[in-house]
Design brief:
- The strands form 3 sheets. The chain has a 9-stranded antiparallel sheet.
- The protein is an alpha+beta fold and 548 residues long.
- The protein folds into 2 domains: 220 residues, no CATH class; 265 residues, Beta-galactosidase, Chain A, domain 5.
- It is elongated and about 105 Å long.
- It is built from 12 helices and 20 strands.
- The longest helix is centred in the last third of the chain and has 27 residues.
Length: 548
């Protein structure tokens, strides 16, 4: 098998894998939306969905079955900054809605901000936090808080916006849960101020968790699979994915120091970020079989003496997986841009792509220039591959004559062909190794273009207004298909007529697949094909022009 066909088979296998994943997501059983309750209730000591405080003794009692947890609603508090529109619910003090003002839902709706967090429908995704303890009542995400106002906005010239929620327990403890927003930032600090007006020492543990539903994306072949689910980072094991299936099969319960927990989706992420020296326990849970919980809770209690006050802190990041932002966050957050096992190659490729973009100011032209640079770097390997194909192409008449001579006797035909290769000093597999070496780079760049939020709604030229969306007029996929057809004509043709027909059909098959791919990926593939045609045509002219 020649190198070009090896690459085509590999690429076809990749495309078929993506199609299969899309089909699985499309045909997954639907998830029923939870029934919501609008009634508020006082905070119970240990409501369903609230993590338990660390036991004072190693012996633990058998946990009781969990009751159904309705997502109650209370007073809604609207918050607006220069980059965020948020809604906090006084019932639980949850972050129920968070929209990213600088990331429109679609280009057709530039005024409609992308809703990363929301508490409606089958894609429910909210951030919850609270305090737990061993004695008395604590403000958790079932507590009914009171708010001073129903609307908060970051004023011009103001760099910080504080949104306080208050609750007092019957025993004399006063709590103030404050969300702290800052200008230009997707990091929201959560502070719990504790005022102890009792005669006993107070001890409590802080927790933060995400609660999320997940349903399959609709539209067969309209979505390129990208990981949606949980992830954690620890200094021991670094970045780990915790899928929804993992949460359902076996609850996570892991003591750690520092690190973070996150819920990932294509282009965006929500993450709870504790202090790096803080000891926590990462945990997961599943409520009603449809809502997945991933969170962390302190392992060491914060203590407040009688008559004193104390504060507990936790940070929430809810925003884009943009590299320049992620670099300012705790260690490992840049790994939420999930390049998979090819990260070691993809990360430098993105860095180079970003540098080119800084010079050109357009991601489409940056993709083209990067493709040219990669092609130039691999020119010696490509030249060896194309030279091998050119030599094979020169031998086509002799190989055809051998086929006519030996007919269906495959053994004698193969022996004769091996003798021909030996006489002409041709290695039929000589072009395969260069292509195999390049494949990881091609795949790494594929994931860079797929995972980078910087490509989202980024224009190129003319009709391409969004490199992360499919070409609206299918011009690029058609050009790509035509380039593949030309490549097939340049390659040595197989002796078997059936194989000839199969390989001639492949460009049309790929064209159909690429109709649904993001324009940035199709642009990369098209430019790569055109450069390959130019290289191959030049080398074949040189080789075939030599005297036999």
């Amino acid at each position: 098998m020649d190198s070009q066909r090896l690459f085509l088979f590999f690429a076809l296998a990749l495309v078929l894998m993506l199609i299969w994943q899309s089909w699985e997501m499309h045909n997954a059983p639907p998830i029923k939306a939870p029934t919501e309750s609008t009634q508020s209730a006082p905070a119970p000591e240990a409501p369903p969905g609230v993590p338990s405080a660390p036991a004072p003794r190693p012996t633990e009692a058998t946990p009781a079955p969990k009751a159904t947890e309705a997502l109650a609603r209370g007073t809604r508090i609207a918050v607006r900054t220069d980059v965020i529109d948020a809604v906090i619910d006084a019932q639980g003090g949850d972050m129920r809605v968070l929209k990213l003002r600088q990331y429109p839902v679609t280009l057709d709706k530039p005024q409609e901000a992308f809703p990363l967090l929301h508490d409606d429908g089958l894609e429910l995704f909210i951030a919850q936090s609270g305090l737990i303890g061993l004695e008395g009542q604590y403000p958790n995400h079932k507590t009914s808080y009171s708010a001073e106002s129903g609307q908060y906005a970051l004023a011009d010239g103001q760099n910080e916006l504080r949104v306080p929620l208050k609750w007092r327990d019957p025993g004399g403890m006063q709590y103030t849960k404050t969300y702290v927003f800052r200008r230009g930032s997707y990091v929201v600090d959560v502070e719990f101020a504790v005022k102890n007006e009792t005669r006993r020492e107070w001890a409590g543990y802080l927790y933060g968790q995400f609660q999320r539903m997940h349903s399959a994306s609709t539209g067969f072949l309209r979505v390129i699979p990208s990981y949606t689910g949980g992830a954690i980072y620890t200094t021991e094991n670094h970045y780990e994915k915790i899928s929804f299936d993992d949460m359902a099969k076996s609850p996570l319960k892991r003591p750690v120091k520092g690190g973070w927990v996150a819920m990932l989706q294509h282009y965006f992420v929500g993450s709870w970020l504790p202090a790096p020296d803080q000891r926590n326990e990462f945990y997961t849970d599943v409520l009603e079989g449809t809502r997945y919980v991933l969170g962390l809770k302190n392992q060491t209690p914060t203590k407040v003496a009688p008559g004193e006050s104390g504060t507990l802190h936790l940070s929430l990041y809810a925003g884009p997986k943009e590299q320049k932002i992620l670099k300012t966050l705790p260690e490992g957050m840049n790994l939420t841009v999930d390049y998979g096992f090819l990260t070691v190659i993809s990360a430098p490729l993105f860095w180079l792509l970003e540098q080119i973009h800084r010079l050109l100011g357009n991601w489409g032209w940056a993709i083209i220039v990067l493709t040219i640079l990669i092609k130039a770097a691999f020119y010696p390997l490509s030249a060896a591959s194309y030279k091998s194909m050119a030599n094979m192409r020169k031998m086509q008449p002799k190989m055809q004559a051998l086929k006519e001579r030996f007919g269906d006797d495959r053994q004698k035909l193969n022996q004769a062909m091996m003798e021909l290769y030996k006489t002409e000093k041709i290695n039929p597999l000589g072009g395969c190794l260069p292509i195999l070496i390049q494949i990881p780079v091609f795949l790494a760049l594929y994931w860079v273009l797929l995972e980078s939020v910087e490509m989202r709604q980024a224009p190129w030229v003319g009709w391409i207004k969004d490199l992360s969306a499919q070409d609206p007029y299918y011009i690029l996929p058609i050009i790509m298909g035509a380039s593949m057809f030309v490549q097939q004509k340049l390659n040595p043709q197989p002796l078997d007529p059936i194989q000839q027909k199969v390989f001639m059909v492949l460009p049309f098959v790929f064209t159909v697949f690429f109709l649904f791919f993001p324009a940035g990926l199709v642009l990369y593939w098209t430019v790569n094909n055109i450069l390959s045609i130019a290289q191959q045509w030049r080398i074949m002219r040189v080789v075939e022009g030599k005297k036999k």
